[in-house]
Amino acid sequence: MANDNAVQQAAEQIARAREDKTLRPSIAGFFDEATNTVSYVVHDPKTNEAAIIDSVLDYEAASGRTSYGSADLIVEYVTSNNLKVSWLIETHAHADHISAAPYLQEKFGGKLAIGREIVRVQEVFGKLFNAGTDFERDGSQFDKLFEDGETFRLGEIEGIALHVPGHTPADMAFIIGDAAFVGDTIFMPDFGTARADFPGGDARQLFRSIRRLLSLPKETRLFLCHDYKAPGRDEYAWETTVRQQREGNVHVKDGVTEDEFVEMRTARDKTLAMPNLIMPSVQVNIRGGRLPAPEDNGVSYIKIPVNAV
Ligand SMILES: [Fe+2]
């Protein structure tokens, strides 16, 4: 991309980290089989400063019960490695799992961050769920709203955020050293890409966002938010590179045009059912992972809009 300053800046950061090992973060992935989500703990080995990306709160839809099995694996890892959590990052408002960020923030501190465009997602879903005026649609449930190209630090390691809309209007990729956490944009090369049919989603925008990510240096490490295996593959996987995606991604490898992608994505999305947990997830995640305020009996309720989606 010729005039894409943010991507240029990200590419330079990645090149510096490729040259100097001490600018590369340590990364641990935690796979949640119930929702096929990968959460990450990323840290600077020199200072032990850490970011927790896309954590999962376990939720059983039938009983409406939350639990902490997945999040506690992260708690254990952070504690046993003596990490200091400075960021809790959400790549977007997830529609398939509830975030455990408030639970982890209570234990470890750190700033809860998401993309600036979350306000558009709050607007759309605030209306759908008929949330009252007490539900602020200004992103104030988060401590930090990232803009495209905004930089940050994880200890001595550089970070930069890229706005990569399409799956939702607010998706961000977070690049830390030479590692890009790309959220729901691309998946493993043999599986393809994220869906673009949720409210506010856009296949054309998704293609452009993905091509933006794939214009980063070829050796950039990519860490994905989900894996569903793929025909012929028996193991879950969540790490790949720009090179592998450009050579082999079944939806967006080099040579696939925007129109071809949009046609494929649109047709495929028509065949996909809504995720099981979309209603509870979105409702809670637009509130920064906090349950709706309890009613006068002290109980929080999740709403289901009937015949509205
Ligand atoms: Fe998602």
Helix/sheet category: alpha/beta
**CATH fold assignment:** Metallo-beta-lactamase, Chain A
Q: How would you spell out the order of helices and strands?
A: HEEEEEHEHEHEEEEEHEEHHH
Helix content: 25-40%
Care to count the β-strands? 14
Runs in which pLDDT lies below 50 for 5 or more consecutive residues are: none
Please give the largest β-sheet.
6 strands, mixed
Distance between the termini: 36 Å
* Architecture per CATH nomenclature, i.e. the level-2 architecture: 4-Layer Sandwich
Report Rg.
19 Å
What is this entry, summarized?
It holds the Pfam family Lactamase_B. Strand 11 and strand 12 (179-181) form a beta hairpin.
Kindly describe this structure.
- The chain is an alpha/beta fold.
- It has 8 helices and 14 strands.
- It has helices at 5-19, 69-80, 101-108, 118-128, 203-213, 242-248, 258-270, 278-285; strands at 26-32, 37-43, 49-53, 58-60, 65-67, 84-89, 111-115, 144-146, 151-154, 157-163, 172-176, 179-181, 221-223, 239-241.
- The strands form 3 sheets. Strands 1-2-3-6-7-8 form a 6-stranded mixed sheet, with helices on one face. A 6-stranded mixed sheet has the order 9-10-11-12-13-14. A two-stranded antiparallel ribbon has the order 4-5.
- Bound molecules: fe (ii) ion.
- Fe (ii) ion is lined by residues 92, 94-95, 167, 184.
